[in-house]
UniProtKB/TrEMBL annotation:
Belongs to the type-I restriction system S methylase family. Residues 31-189, 240-382 form the Type I restriction modification DNA specificity domain. GO terms for biological process: DNA restriction-modification system. Transmembrane segments: none annotated. InterPro entries: Restrct_endonuc_typeI_TRD, Restrct_endonuc_typeI_TRD_sf, Type-I_RS_S_subunit. It comes from Sulfurirhabdus autotrophica. Pfam families: Methylase_S. It comes from the Bacteria. Keywords: DNA-binding, Restriction system. GO terms for molecular function: DNA binding. This is Type I restriction enzyme S subunit.
């Protein structure tokens, strides 16, 4: 069916004036001294994810003066940004709220004329066939690199513009729902975090009683569970009657392991989920890194972890990353797991580890590669609230954690559907219906 669509290379669109590539500023054009904590984000390969940008507090920014001096690097709605080094098979499209961001030195920007749908092109460049082409034709081995000449040779198909927009609409609708779930989870996580902070870090209900006030936003029954005084402890002042212990005293910790790679039968046809430390970068872990067999589980040091277990990366690039498993799984030796107990639910353990992660990192050992060991985790101080307060907290926090998990699983299902549809739609194997309606504002 693709025979009905014109096939060409991106370079032909560039020659016709319907596409333009721009590499980010090199050398003295933009000096590191011009980076600042304020201004517009500087978009390089580190900010480009598959289909979206990920900007954090660590993302460099540039001032308005810099953008005025170098206007050709200002990003506009519909621009497609590629990473120039490393993750060269990724691209993200600039949405209205990102207009005015600035192209970094490790980025390449593609801008299309109105004859074409930028969103369709972004999806086409994310198709398995195009990603494979980019990885096969890039320069470098240890560090893949991309340039304008390579991008100019990328094979593309050109359906009619109505078909481009229809395909972009279908795939975009799935991505929009995934993004909505992500934003909802950010809000839910902030709500859970604020509750934990108020009760177990700032001790707001106790402080209110000390001041002769009723604790804010608490019903009378819950407010009555909190004492009216503090006591001294190794953590400083804590609510009267509460205790201080350690993670290792109150909870079991589990160091992961890796079944022998010399036995391929351990890694073929498995039914047991297994994760590496890279998965701790994920907000919630809803899928494994790999699957192993039951025999592999029984003949290695890895252990099966229950669903909703707090996991912590203890070495490497992910050192200090904390996540929650939402599936039953095993982990590798770069992960320490802290399964919940009846006394201490994950809804408490997870934010407690997050709150104290800097203490753990400061206790790290090792030479060339720093790491936290299981003993460091066991020795971490642990606040032990009154059990009735813990139950009241769980009543409020668990629904938030449950909804976060549900959103993550739904987003994974939607992403799987999108990834299955993408190559079929882009190649023309699967056609859209003529009646497909477009949402206003999806023109790019």
């Amino acid at each position: 069916m693709t025979g009905e669509w014109a096939g060409t290379i991106l370079g032909e669109l560039i020659k016709a004036g319907d596409a333009h590539l721009q590499t980010g500023p090199f050398g003295t054009a933009l000096k590191a001294a011009e980076y600042s904590a304020e201004g517009v984000p500087l978009i390089s390969v580190g900010e480009v994810r598959q289909g979206h940008f990920e900007v954090s507090d660590k993302t460099p920014r540039v001032s308005k003066e810099t953008t005025k001096r170098l206007p050709k690097f200002i990003l506009e709605i519909g621009d497609i940004v590629f990473g120039r080094k490393g993750g060269i098979d990724r691209n993200a499209i600039v949405h209205p709220q990102q207009q005015g961001w600035f192209l970094g030195s490790d980025g390449i920007r593609l801008r299309l004329s109105e004859k074409y749908s930028s969103l369709f092109f972004s999806y086409q460049m994310r198709s398995p066939a195009t990603r494979a082409w980019l990885l096969q034709n890039c320069e470098g081995t240890t560090m893949p690199s991309l340039n304008q000449q390579i991008l100019g040779r990328v094979p593309i198909v050109l359906p009619p513009i109505t078909e481009q927009k229809a395909i972009a609409h279908i795939l975009g609708a799935l991505d929009n729902k995934i993004e909505l779930n992500r934003r909802m989870n950010v809000t839910l996580e902030a709500m859970a975090r604020a509750l934990f902070q108020s009760w177990f870090v700032d001790f707001d209900p106790v402080r209110a009683k000390l001041d002769g006030c009723e604790p804010a936003r608490l019903d009378a029954y819950t407010a009555a569970l909190f004492p009216a005084y503090f006591q001294d402890s190794p953590l400083g002042h804590i609510p009267q009657g509460w205790e201080i212990s350690t993670i290792g005293t109150k909870l079991s910790t589990v160091l992961g392991g890796t079944p022998s790679r010399e036995k391929p039968e351990y890694w073929t046809g498995g039914t047991v989920a297994w994760i590496n430390s890279g998965k701790t970068n994920e907000f919630r872990i809803t899928a494994p890194s790999e699957m192993i067999t039951r025999e592999a589980l029984e003949n290695s040091s890895t252990k099966l972890l229950p669903r909703r277990t707090t996991v912590l990366a203890i070495t490497g690039a992910t050192l200090g990353q904390v996540s929650i498993t939402e599936i039953e799984c095993c982990a590798n030796q770069s992960v320490v797991a802290i399964p919940a107990s009846e006394e201490f639910p994950t809804e408490f353990i997870y934010p407690w580890i997050q709150e104290n992660i800097e203490k753990l990192i400061s206790s790290q050992t090792g030479g060339a590669q720093q790491h936290i060991n299981k003993g460091n985790v066991n020795e971490l101080v642990l606040l032990c609230p009154d059990h009735q307060v813990m139950n009241a907290y769980l009543t409020k926090a668990k629904p938030l954690f449950d909804q976060i998990a549900a959103n993550c699983f739904q987003s994974r299902t939607l992403a799987t559907l999108r990834d299955a549809l993408l190559p079929k739609l882009v190649s023309g194997e699967l056609r859209t219906r003529p009646s497909t309606t477009l949402v206003q504002g999806e023109a790019f």
